[in-house]
Amino acid sequence: MQSLAIFPLFYLPSTSYFSALAKNEYSFLIEKHEHFPKQTNRNRTRISSPNGTLDLYIPVIKGSKYHTVIKNVRISDDSEWQRLHWRSLQSCYRNSAYFEYYEDEFAKFYHQKYKYLFDYNLELFEWVLKQLKVKYEAQFTEEYIAEVEPALDFRGKKSFDAIEDVKGAKEYFQVFDDRNGFLPNMSIVDLLFSQGPQAKSFL
Questions:
Q1: Among 55-59, 65-69, 124-128, 194-198, where is mean pLDDT lowest?
Q2: Could you report the per-residue pLDDT of 147-192, keeping only the tens digit for each?
Q3: Which residue range forms the structural domain that includes residue 17?
């Protein structure tokens, strides 16, 4: 019987994703053998900008969109997506309280080339957990498990908006809240750059 929750690996996941991890006491499996589903957060993240939410997409090689196992999905370098993402992150968070504290380490993810989406997401994910001071050891599925108890299966959720705690999530100061009000469920870096070492207490 499958006893650990299974999570997909997202690009800079939302705060509710990390709240779900916390609910599972950071004991979970990362899905490594699913087929890459289109139009999900596996290659997309959402940040706050002066004009509201801004989605950042990682382009993948065309063939990766059709029945490719997630660990084999390759990033496309036909566009300068890393430069564009980094410029967006800088412009949106330069004035946040802790961006400069994390900037040097975080920048490497936008200057170093990566071949596979899974490897890139995993390195970012582990970096975030380190900043949150979460003790965690990577565990991965060894095959695709079709039948999983619904409460433990997070793979089919296009986003984590439906998690019960999101509506009552703790609000925190956001750079553009004077224009947009509080925007819930942004990328974890939105919380991290705003609250720094205190970010974990908001999950």
A1: 65-69
A2: 999 889 999 865 565 554 455 678 999 999 999 999 999 999 999 9
A3: 5-202
Number of C-beta neighbours around residue 27 at 10 A: 12
In the 8-state DSSP scheme, what is residue 56?
E
Angle of CA points 75, 37, 165, to nearest 5°: 110
Total count of domains within the chain: 1
CB 146 within 8 A of CB 3: no
**Structural contact between residues 189 and 18, judged by C-beta atoms closer than 8 angstroms:** no
Q: Tokens 């916390």, residue?
A: 22
Helix (H, G, I), strand (E, B) or coil at 53: strand
Cβ atoms of residues 11 and 44 within 8 Å: yes
Contact call for residues 54 and 196 (beta carbons, < 8 A):
no
